[in-house]
Specification:
Blueprint (H helix, E strand, L loop, with lengths): L8 E2 L6 E2 L2 E4 L12 H13 L4 E3 L8 H10 L8 E6 L1 E5 L16 E5 L3 H15 L6 E5 L3 H4 L2 H24 L5 E6 L2 H10 L4 E5 L13 H8 L2 E5 L6 H4 L6 E2 L2 E2 L2 H16 L4 H7 L7 E7 L3 H12 L4 H9 L13
Parallel strand pairs: 3-4, 3-14, 4-5, 5-8, 8-9, 9-10, 10-11, 11-14
Antiparallel strand pairs: 1-2, 6-7, 12-13
Helix pairs in contact: 1-2, 3-5, 6-7, 10-11
Length: about 350
Amino acid sequence: MDMDVTNLRSLGSSPLQVNPLSFGGATIGDLWENLDDSFAEGVVRTAYDAGIRLFDTAPFYGHGLSDYRIGHALRQLPRDSYTISTKVGRWLKPQARHKIDRGFWLGTLDFESIVDYSYDGIMRSVEQSYQRLATNRLDILLIHDVDVWSHGSRELADKYFKQVMDSGYRALTELRSNGDVKAIGVGVNEADMCARFAKAGDFDCMLLAGRYTLYEQTALEEFLPLCVEKNIGILAGGVFNSGILATGSQKDARYNYKEAPAQVVQKVSRIEDVCKRHNVPLAAAAIQFPLGHEKVSSVAVGMSKPERVQQCLDLIRHPIPNDLWAELKHEGLLPESAPVPTV
């Protein structure tokens, strides 16, 4: 399989063509670390200059900070030369600095994030995104974080699912039919919620974070077959499961934004051993694995430093022998049904 980053893949039923590697904007929203504005914008330009053309962001990322930095970095480039994916479900309200709950964002703009999946809330979010991103159009709009992982309970996830499908979904379909956006979808952390949305509406693509990775493949059970049936393109996020598939099973490795449990470390250690036997970095296998599925159009990776951009390019181009995937399946570390990249 040719992993040249400049090659383009169709994104589901949309007219868009995207790179196999895309820029995940959470890290330049000051996730886990504070970045200087000019430094963060330089990382975006480094990615663009390297051939990466899909930039994924969200109002939630640094409460507008990721949007601002991506917009400022790209605004003087030809608008048709890049694709912007952003999200809806939150709009931003000015707030006193000392009153803002920043969560795991070390630095943010001085805005409070208001959860709102209604028609009016989504339209307000889109209008704000235009301004922060310094653009008069968006390419991909994703319903953000309608899942238990984000909201803490099934009751709240169900409430927001109903709100968006009863109200906000109409805003997305209007924007798509008017030509204001080219693709609509969902961006969440749960494969079963993606499947639920796929059954409930007409979506072009979905960003699934952390549930279709070298470590776990729950999306294979129901969601990915639905994507084949309904021609839904996938942007695979969280391909390193927030750290452990990049760092390996070292002390303090992160899994799902927390210290990795012992059983996770144990399985990753076994995967790591297989990779070592084939002289393949664990992170290279992790970044390439999702792209073996016919509906995965791109992997979205956070890049907070220029050298991280080059590292991701090297990983996605690293040759991986077919025997590595075969051994992972033989050892029970990948299901036999999992499609894999082939040389």
